[in-house]
Write a structure and sequence with these properties.
By secondary structure, the chain is mostly helical. The protein has seven helices and no strands. Helix 2 packs across helix 7 and helix 6 crosses helix 7. The longest helix has 25 residues. The structure holds heme C. Heme C binds next to helix 3, helix 5, helix 6 and helix 7.
Length: 108
């Protein structure tokens, strides 16, 4: 009985971790945390040492929120001034998820 359990443990562990790895990749919040928070802060305020140095925009501001989804997606994809371009690093649907996430930040 003990031997069978030991044999199963790695499989059970793998099954428990795998879904987390999958959601981490598709989840907009963790995407933002991984790729954007360095400059924009987890709350989108830009209130981080790097954000202040680079003059990152407050993504919650009216200035950002009054932009269209297409304009926001374009800045993320192509970059602007110190804002890096993400078209090579993110898939188009990930950029769309981030646009939606930027909207959510503005509502908080
Ligand atoms: C290296 C720092 C840095 C990183 C990383 C970064 N940004 Fe930026 N971002 C900036 C800066 C600086 C600006 C202001 C650009 C300007 O002055 O035109 C900006 C501007 C923007 C704007 C435009 C806001 C407006 O009102 O025009 C959006 C949207 C944006 N960033 C989203 C993101 C998203 C989403 C990510 C993650 C995929 C991200 N940024 C990652 C530095 C960064």
């Amino acid at each position: 009985m003990k031997r069978t359990l030991r044999g199963f443990a790695p499989i059970l562990l793998g099954a428990a971790i795998w879904p987390h790895l999958l959601t981490a990749e598709t989840n907009a919040a963790s995407l933002f945390k991984a790729k954007c928070a360095l400059c924009h802060g987890e709350d989108g305020s830009g209130n981080t040492p790097t954000g202040k140095a680079q003059k990152a925009k407050d993504l919650r501001s009216e200035e950002t929120q009054k932009k269209s989804d297409a304009e926001i997606a374009e800045v993320i994809a192509k970059g602007r001034n110190k804002m890096p371009a993400f078209a090579q690093k993110l898939k188009p649907d990930q950029i769309q998820q981030l646009v939606a996430y930027v909207r959510q930040l503005g509502k908080k």
